[in-house]
Amino acid sequence: MSKPFRPRFQGDVELNELPDHALLSVINIPGAVAASPWALIGRRFLYAFVLLIAITLLAYFDRGGYSEPLTFVDALYYSAVSLSTTGYGDITPVTQGARLVNILIVTPARIAFLILLVGTTLSVLTENSRKTLQIQRWRKLVRNHTVVIGFGTKGRSAVSALMADGMPASNIVVVDTDKAALSRAERLGLVTVHGSGTKADVLKIAGAPRARSVVVAPSSDDTAVLVTLSVREIAPKAMIVASVRESENQHLLEQSGADSVVISSETAGRLLGLATVTPTVVAMMEDLLSPDEGLAVADRPVAEDEVGANPRHLADIVLGIVRSGELYRIDSPEAETVEPGDRLLYIRRTAGERPEKVRD
To answer: Which residues does 28 contact at the CB level (< 8 Å), separation at least 6?
Structure first.
């Protein structure tokens, strides 16, 4: 690529070259929801005000123990200058009791008052340090996870299917440029990365080179092609599953390196056509495609006692056999006998579901 055009496609600084503390606005790892800085400031000022009033009342009730008789305003003034360590010296404790109160109560209160005033700054610095260490540890350990690029309708559905099939939220990383979409992903407990999936440095931040699979689900087909090219370049071993709207773009995704391409418009069109003729079939298809409801399509390795058997005679309803990475339907000659190392594609009943009568 010629030098004048380089800035149009690449930033001056690669994200993956930045130190971890510079990625606080890029990577979000779910954890306890922290209060806003303004809430922390307001709460600490309230505590400081309560402490000030308490010391004021204490000094006012013992107003005869000071260098001059105290009014309530004098007691408030004395408390303020004492707790803030200003200490002008115009009002001082003179009796043994007043001095003992200052030693045992006012001095610890002064320390607590200062901690409250600087606590917000310390809290923010501590929180940022904690998040930086969390990001550093996550980037070192993350591997064999799934990266979902695009958290629109398709991306959210893909994540729902993954989690319903047993994948923990900690094994899913969402990449998107929309902060509202990332906020929805964070509420699900997912790790999020703010940036474009077309950029290699963003994909590296998301751990794509060490990912087991990558789901490409942007809103447009041209973006899907660019994302797939970028992912395949930095993650040659990852399984890439991509979605396109139009069937004529399927070959572009396959040429870009996608292992599997889902055509959303054709799938929706087929379901719409079926719904006009046999709506119950569509209801059953939706059931099969929802891993957390009713029935679901799943795969599993064959058991030792199933080797050599006809898959039609097994306890599960088998749809096909996966052998050496190839899928053979149940009616194909290759699927007549189960062989060692095969995986069965079957219909699984989700836990806790009872058979229901299909309505006419």
So the answer is: 182, 186, 191, 192, 194
Region label for 239, one of left (φ > 0), alpha (ψ between -120 and 50) or beta (otherwise): beta
Q: Which amino acid, one-letter code, is at 215? A: V
pTM surpassing 0.70?
A: no
SS3 (DSSP) at 188: coil
C-beta of residue 321 within 8 angstroms of C-beta of residue 311? yes
- Distance set, CA 301 to CA 147, 297, 307, 345 (Å): 25, 14, 11, 9
- pLDDT by residue for the chain (360 residues), tens only, comes to 444 444 444 445 676 666 666 677 788 877 644 555 667 677 777 888 888 899 899 888 888 888 888 889 988 888 888 887 777 778 888 888 888 888 888 888 878 877 776 666 666 666 667 777 788 888 888 899 999 999 988 899 889 888 877 889 889 999 999 989 999 998 888 999 999 999 999 999 999 999 999 999 998 889 999 999 999 999 999 999 998 888 888 899 899 999 988 887 666 666 677 677 777 776 777 666 666 666 777 788 988 888 888 888 888 888 889 888 788 888 888 888 888 988 888 887 765 444 443 333
Residues with Cβ within 8 Å of 316's Cβ and at least 6 positions away in sequence, in order, are 344, 346, 347, 348
Here the tokens at position 198 are 């077309």
Identify the structural domains of the chain with CATH numbers, from first to last: 37-139 (1.10.287.70), 142-266 (3.40.50.720), 278-349 (3.30.70.1450)
Which of 194, 154, 201, 152 is closest to 173 using CA atoms? 194
284 Cβ neighbours under 8 A, 6+ residues apart = 295, 358
